[in-house]
Design goal:
Keywords: DNA-binding, Phosphoprotein, Transcription, Transcription regulation
CATH architecture of the largest domain: 3-Layer(aba) Sandwich
Radius of gyration: 17 Å
Number of domains: 2
Order of helices and strands: EHEHEHEHEHEHHHHHH
Shape: globular
Structural class: alpha/beta
Helix content: 40-55%
InterPro entries: CheY-like_superfamily, NreC/VraR/RcsB-like_REC, Sig_transdc_resp-reg_C-effctor, Sig_transdc_resp-reg_receiver, Tscrpt_reg_LuxR_C, WalR-like
Strand content: 5-15%
CATH superfamily of the largest domain: Response regulator
Protein name: DNA-binding response regulator
Low-confidence stretches: 152-158
GO molecular function: DNA binding
CATH class of the largest domain: Alpha Beta
Number of strands: 6
CATH topology of the largest domain: Rossmann fold
Length: 232
């Protein structure tokens, strides 16, 4: 994503001008964040993401014309190489269908708009460095949903799940289980008696083999495929 001294370049996509202005005010007081553009609909967001190559797109779900979910799918499909923008989705709508749809189309994070400015800034930094993020209340909902019979099925992308899982080494499967449990690289390193650099390499290989963009999608994949179970 960004270099050690480069600011995180953010594109704002929301159909409400006042909302975009508020986000810009919050973000531009941060020394390590730069707002590089604004889009009022999904079509424009896709075009600006292509032209400006931001590090993070702050994407509203409901917008006129092309909505945030379709825009995220297009951005993820067109820029799925290293260095492509991460999409952080925000919404005022507390709905499970939006949450799971956002994860499946390639969003790296999902936050509700009733969060604090500090949470927004932290979320941008998290997804900019290549990690996935869910608000704590949304993480609990993901787990609760998978605990229900008839929860969401299918994968978030990539190869056939069975084939992908068979391609994981025993160590990589251990890492996937710990990632699905919410463990950080440091916590995984402690649990498996490895160096953090080694853990980072393992996580990268797991994501590559499963065809996933980030740790958020790895969590969803692990629960969907029964690699881990709520409370297990």
């Amino acid at each position: 994503m960004t270099g050690a001294t480069s600011p995180i370049r953010v594109l704002l996509a929301d159909d409400h001008h006042l909302v975009r202005t508020g986000f810009r005010v919050i973000l531009e007081i941060e020394d390590d964040i730069e707002v590089v553009g604004e889009a009022a609909d999904g079509e424009r967001a896709v075009a600006m993401a292509r032209a400006l190559r931001p590090d993070v797109v702050l994407m509203d779900v409901e917008m006129p014309g092309v909505d945030g979910l379709e825009a995220t799918r297009r951005i993820s499909t067109e820029t799925d190489e290293p260095g492509g923008p991460a999409v952080l989705m925000l919404t005022t709508f507390d709905r499970d269908d939006y949450l799971f749809a956002a994860l499946r189309v390639g969003a790296s994070g999902f936050l509700l708009k009733n969060g604090t400015p500090e949470a927004l800034v932290d979320a941008i930094r998290v997804v900019a460095r290549g990690d996935g993020l869910l608000a704590p209340e949304l993480t609990r909902r993901v787990i609760a949903t998978f605990a229900r019979p008839g929860g969401p099925a299918g994968t978030v992308g990539g190869p056939t799940p069975e084939e992908a899982l068979r391609d994981l080494t025993p160590r990589e499967r251990e890492v996937l289980v710990l990632v699905a449990g919410g463990a950080s690289n440091a916590e995984i390193a402690t649990a498996l008696h490895l160096g953090e650099a080694t853990v980072k390499s393992h996580v990268s290989r797991v994501l590559a083999k499963l065809g996933l963009r980030d740790r958020v999608q790895a969590v969803v994949f692990a629960y969907e495929q029964g690699v881990v179970r709520p409370g297990g």
